[in-house]
Amino acid sequence: MERDAQRAPLRSLTVRAVHGDKPALNELLQRVEVIARAYFVRRIGDRDEVNDLVQNVLLRVHRSIGDIRVPDGFTAFVLKAALFELQDYYRGRYSAREVVPDDSSTRERPGEAGKPDVRIDVEAALQQLGSKARRIIELREYGYRYEEIAEMIGSTEAAVKMQVKRAFEKLRGVLMLCWTALILAN
Q1: Which class is domain 116-185?
Q2: How far is it, in rounded angstroms, from Cα 27 to Cα 73?
């Protein structure tokens, strides 16, 4: 009985938010933040990434608020969104994407004087792709899901997946040539 009394305000907020009531949506999102933050802190600890994870849950819920059909299931809806974000986190979506080499990696190593400087130029390899394929690969590397990329470029998820497959096949061939040149030079 007491639990039903606690659900009533949340159910009412959810119904109002689904029907476009902005103040109700704002209050609902504040509650989502509390639920999501507790969920992530319980699972990965109080880390900097929790803020990013919570933000992404808020975006998922905000984008999908109109899809809620059962207002009593709102908390489950939020926890499912949090679970998806946690899975992305465990898959490495939130790890650093850019590695800045230190000075020692660019200096000549002892005993390597006179050897030709052959490197695999990934940027040049990416230039072999069309602009659309290059954009898709870049977005994928930034951690966007196929569904999000399709929405950004105005395509379908299946078409984006096929572009990625073809782009990787082409890159594999280009990089294999670079790798062969590197081995032959050494």
Answers
A1: mainly alpha
A2: 17
Q: What six digits make up the tokens of 186?
A: 């050494």
Question: Which structure tokens are listed for 82?
Answer: 């949090």
pLDDT value of residue 41: 92
Structure-block tokens of residue 49? 């990434």
Sign of CA dihedral 28, 34, 40, 46: positive
- CA 28 to each of CA 71, 98, 129: distance values in angstroms, whole numbers, following the listed order: 12, 35, 44
Q: Tell me which fold the domain 7-90 belongs to.
A: Rna Polymerase Sigma Factor; Chain: A (1.10.1740)
* Distance between CA atoms of residues 44 and 31, nearest Å: 20
Q: Residue ranges of the domains in the chain? A: 7-90, 116-185
Biggest alpha carbon–alpha carbon distance for the chain? 82
pLDDT tens, residue by residue, 133-185: 888 888 887 778 888 888 888 889 888 888 888 888 888 887 777 677 767 76
The residue type at 104 = S
The set of residues, in sequence order, having a beta carbon less than 8 Å from that of 28 and lying 6+ positions away, is 10, 13, 14, 17, 61, 65, 74
